[in-house]
Amino acid sequence: MKLSRIRLxxxxxxTALLGIVLVQVYWIRSAVEQKEQVxxxxxxxxxxxxxxxxxxxxxxTMLDEQTDLFIGDSLFIVAQTAEMxxxxxxxxxxxxxxxxxDKARELEPSGSYLSDxxxxxxxxxxxxxxxxxxxxGRNMTVDPAGKSDELIPAILKEIxxxxxxxxxxxxxxMRKMMxxxxxxxxxxxxxxxxxxxxxxxxxxLRNKGIETRFDYGVLLDGEILVTPLEKENHSQLISxxxxxxxxxxxxxxxxxxxxxxxxxxxxxxxxxxxLLLLGSILFTTVIVFVFSYSIHIIFRQKKLSExxxxxxxxxxxxxxxxxxxxxxxxxxxxxxxxxSDQQRVKQYTGIIRxxxxxxxxxxxxxxxxxxxxxxxxxxxxxxxxxxxVITHAVENISLMVEEQQGSISTRLEAIQFVVNGDRVHLSNxxxxxxxxxxxxxxxxxLIEVSTRSSGGKLFIAVRDNGIGMNNEQQKMIFEKxxxxxxxxxxxxxxxxxxxxxxxxxxxxxxxxxxxxxQLGAGSTFTIQLFVx
Length: 532
Hints:
Blueprint: H1 3-65, H2 70-88, H3 91-97, E1 98-101, E2 129-133, E3 140-142, H4 148-183, H5 194-207, E4 215-220, E5 223-226, H6 234-240, E6 242-245, E7 257-261, H7 265-272, H8 274-334, H9 336-339, H10 342-373, E8 382-385, H11 386-403, E9 407-412, E10 418-421, H12 423-439, E11 446-454, E12 457-463, H13 471-476, H14 498-508, E13 512-517, E14 523-530
Parallel strand pairs: 9-11
Antiparallel strand pairs: 1-2, 2-3, 4-5, 4-7, 6-7, 8-10, 11-12, 12-14, 13-14
Helix pairs in contact: 1-5, 1-8, 2-4, 8-10, 10-14, 11-12, 12-14
């Protein structure tokens, strides 16, 4: 896939992801704001109920303490008057209180009448019936066509209703006057029963489902005088609290207020929405992770595609050379001048044998890579003297080093150097590290192999003076088919499988391998293995 297409896909996916995240943020903010509005409404309702109960409790307490208070008598009189009036206006009382007159006459200016609302004096040509109070001497006119037997009870019912409303209004006014008269001149601290206020406020908040810590205060005459808070927190209470009039029925609007604040309000609201918030954050995180991982996979697949192409090119070069050499050797042998010379035939057949071994070795490496990929590495575990393995590998590679006018040395200082492992695979590990040190040398190779033991582990270090690697290359050198780039010239042999094989074998033995390198200053590979 072309890089331009990958960039387009990333831009589209990023735009969609950003849109999803913004929608989630907006949705969460809206949900929190809605929760705050509901919370504010519930608190306001709880405060209103609390102040009503507080006022009623306070009035009852004051009446209990002041039995001779005249306002109590006044309210009693009002209530009795309402009850008596309702009784007087019943259907039974009507028959004894009024009589119907069959003559029409003009009502006195002070009289009361019932008639058509559009013609207060009655319609012309229609006689009217007059209700005369038997004792009070006042008259009421009724249209006989309107069936007074049905109309009179309805009228009286409406009168009774209006009277009761007026009585209730009068009772409310008297109540407000009583509150005002009782609170006037009273010491501020005596206006509030702190224990009752605390219990009632907590109960009303719980009834509204509010189960968080709260602080309250009572603002009396412009100063907070009743509160469990320290004085230094009073300003915070005034600035952030929910408020309600302490005496809502006070006829003369005062400044006494009940203040309530919730120090943990934000956390409480968020905790009440934890499932919603957690789900939203979790799914958003999953989407972001999947997006990031998808981008990583896209670039990784692109890189693997490049590595695969590089592997095919390398494999072509690795097989092309021995095939060409074998072809030339066969042609030479078929030459009549050569075929009769046994010495030369022997030389050419030796070349064919060596090149065949070389191709077989390359095929084995490819097969090893396939086995490693399937995790089918079979180890024949035995006690292995790694100093012997290192010495033998150095002897085999020394000829190649000397051909390039280089040198290889050993510094085997480990006290414990016997491990439990597969001798063949461990020998291949050492040989691959030495082979890489020779192949990536820009000048005469200088290679040192050292060992040391510590903490039950054997440390094997292979240091060279090769081209070195940057940090990005160091992260990728153990990946299959990866080779450190050396330019456009194909002067580095191999498939990029050596270090992958080394890492797999070392880890199969319970060890580890790491590398330290610097561009132009060489590299050092260090293997850690547990000793017997």
